[in-house]
Amino acid sequence: SLTTLDLRNNKLGDEGCRALAEVVKHNQSLTTLDLRNNKLGDEGCRALAEALVHNESLSTLSLSFNEIADTGCTNIAEVLKVNKTLTWLSLWHNDITAEGARAIMEALKTNKTLTTLDLRRNPIQAAHGDIAATLRVNHTLTRLVLPKDMRRLLDKEVTGRIEYSLW
Prior knowledge:
The protein is α/β, with parallel strands linked by helices and 167 residues long. 37% of the residues lie in helices and 13% in strands. A 7-stranded parallel β-sheet has the order 1-2-3-4-5-6-7, with no helix packed on it.
């Protein structure tokens, strides 16, 4: 059965993502889904998030290089509150601001499965306090990739698990 689905660079858009979400919702063998660079926005992200509430197999999800903004990010954050299998999530290079980052950080206060999160190339600097607060209580997240200009904003006590991008 299919465990990895790499659909990067296919211009799926929100409509294509809605169709894919129906498959993901019922599939219980898929562990890795790569949707990088597919012009996914908040609507496609919402459909995917609804599917992930029911999916019990996906552990790796890349949503990098899309057009996901705070609404879509908040939908993903809601999934992180209930999903027990996702361990690796990349939201690198989207349109997520501090509002979306705060939603993710709030979800990570209770999430016990996500170990890697990539938020680089998103303008989330204003959420530095929320990120630090979450890292103080979440000990499951072992790798967090942030924009390089956030290095000076975070407390030294929480920076051991943070990797800063070069871009």
